[in-house]
Design a protein that fits this description.
Elements: E1 2-7, H1 15-29, E2 33-38, H2 63-73, H3 78-89, E3 92-98, H4 106-115, E4 145-151, H5 168-181, E5 186-187, E6 191-193, H6 204-216
Helix pairs in contact: 1-6
C-alpha cells in the first residue's frame, strides 16, 4: 500500500502530530510506503491567485478555467504539481487535522483549492442525457481510498444525532462527499477523537492502540456507501435522487448514502 498523509496542524508536539508520527511508523513497520505532506512545515501557500497558473492566467482571472489550462499546459506551480503527483502515486490518502470552527483548518482547505484543479480533479468526462461527467464515484482519482483522522475538542454527545453542534457525519460530509468522493475517491468511515483537549498522558496509549488498529485495517475496511451519480439512482439532468430510493424518513445528506 502506498499512503500519502496530508497533515495540517501547526504544533509538532500536538496530539495531531503524535497521530501523524504514529501513522508513519505503523504503516512503514507493516511494509507500506508512506509520504507526508506537512502543510505547516512546508509553509504551504493557502490562497489561490494568478501566480498559480503562470502564463495561462487570464485577466480577469478565471480560476476554474485557468487552472485547467495550466494543468494541461504543465504550467502549474511546482508545489501544486508535486502534490498532484503524490495523489496519483498514492492508493490511500490519510488526512490528519483538527476540527476548527466546524471544518478543516484554512491551510488544508487551501491545499484542496490549489491542488484539486480543473481537469485534474473535476471537469472530466462526457456530459449528455445519460451521463453528467465523471464524478461522484468516477473520476481521475478513482481507485483510491481516503480516511479522515479528526480531533474534536468537544464531547461526543455534542456531535451526535441530536447534538447541538450537528451530527459529525453531516459536518464531514462536504469534505468526504463533496471533495473526496467527487473525483472518485472511496471514503472510509472517519477516525474521530472527541474531547481531545482533555486527553491525558495516561489515556493516550488507548488512543494510540485504536489508531493503530484502524491503520492496519485500511485495506479491509468497507467504504462509506455513497451513491454513484451515473448508475441509476439520480434523475438526469436534474441530479435529483429518484423517488422511493431512500429509507422512510431519511432526509438531508443521508439521502446520498445507500441503505
Amino acid at each position: 500500500m502506498k499512503t500519502l498523509i496530508v497533515y495540517a496542524h501547526p504544533e509538532p508536539q500536538s496530539l495531531n502530530g503524535s497521530l501523524k508520527d504514529l501513522a508513519v511508523s505503523t504503516l512503514e513497520a507493516a511494509g507500506h510506503e508512506v509520504r507526508v505532506s506537512d502543510l505547516y512545515a512546508m509553509n504551504w501557500k493557502a490562497v489561490v491567485d494568478a501566480a498559480d497558473y503562470g502564463p495561462e492566467a487570464s485577466s480577469p482571472l478565471k480560476v476554474a478555467l485557468d487552472s485547467g489550462h495550466a494543468f494541461r499546459a504543465g504550467t502549474l506551480t511546482a508545489d501544486v504539481m508535486a502534490e498532484q503527483e503524490k495523489l496519483l502515486w498514492a492508493d490511500t490518502i490519510v488526512f490528519q487535522f483538527p476540527l476548527w470552527w466546524y471544518t478543516m483548518p484554512a491551510i488544508l482547505k487551501g491545499w484542496v483549492d490549489r491542488v484539486f484543479t480543473y481537469r485534474f480533479a473535476y471537469g472530466v468526462g462526457e456530459h449528455s442525457e445519460t451521463k453528467y461527467g465523471e464524478r461522484y464515484g468516477e473520476g481521475t482519482l478513482a481507485g483510491r481510498r481516503a480516511l479522515l483522522s479528526v480531533t474534536v475538542g468537544g464531547p461526543e454527545p455534542h456531535y451526535g444525532p441530536r447534538g447541538i453542534n450537528g451530527p459529525i457525519d453531516d459536518l464531514l460530509f462536504p469534505f468526504q462527499h463533496g471533495i473526496l468522493y467527487y473525483p472518485g475517491i472511496e471514503v472510509l468511515p472517519p477516525f474521530v477523537l472527541y474531547g481531545t483537549d482533555r486527553i491525558t498522558a495516561e489515556e493516550y496509549p488507548d488512543v494510540a492502540k485504536a489508531w493503530e488498529q484502524r491503520l492496519l485495517t485500511l485495506e479491509s475496511t468497507e467504504p462509506i456507501a455513497f451513491r454513484q451519480q451515473n448508475f441509476g439512482d439520480y434523475e438526469l439532468p436534474s441530479l435529483q435522487l429518484k423517488e422511493g430510493l431512500e429509507p422512510a424518513g431519511r432526509t438531508g445528506f443521508g439521502l446520498h448514502v445507500r441503505p
